[in-house]
Amino acid sequence: MAGRIEQRLAELGITLPTPAAPIANYLPFTMAGSLLVVSGQIPLRDGKVAYTGKLSEEVSIEDGVAAARLCFINVMAQVKAATGDLDRVKRILRLGGFIAAPGSFTQHAAVMNGASDLAVEVFGDAGRHARSTIGVPSLPADAAVEVEGMFDIA
């Protein structure tokens, strides 16, 4: 039987993908006590990067928001792989977002809201988190956005 969070994902029409394998020398997640840290996830869909390029150049704000949302879906897939059950998430402690954009771009926070809004939509108050959002000149595989996370796990 699906747990509360899995039911919420189903209500939202979200199916978690198979967690992505690392593309370099790192682990997709690590745990120490109740702290789960998930490595940065890019906007993969069916094994391909769904949003490539830089915000305000090849990627619109709306597509950037969708990319951040997809990144968070991939973060949740890693959380489920690490814990076996998304209901074990007591709280999302922090999300970190990396937005590929030129130096003149200033809408990083709006883009990262795609991930943050979904976190709250899925986990409720336990999804409210601290956050950093950073503009970068490029990301792996020319991804437009990357999102990482820290979780308190029961």
TrEMBL record:
Transmembrane residue ranges: none
SUPFAM superfamilies the UniProt entry points to: YjgF-like
Pfam families per record: YjgF_endoribonc
CDD domains in the cross-refs: YjgF_YER057c_UK114_like_1
InterPro entries registered for this protein in UniProt: Endoribo_LPSP/chorism_mut-like (IPR013813), RutC-like_sf (IPR035959)
Positions of the Endoribonuclease L-PSP/chorismate mutase-like domain: 6-143
Name of protein: Endoribonuclease L-PSP/chorismate mutase-like domain-containing protein
Organism: Neoroseomonas lacus
Taxon lineage: Bacteria, Pseudomonadati, Pseudomonadota, Alphaproteobacteria, Acetobacterales
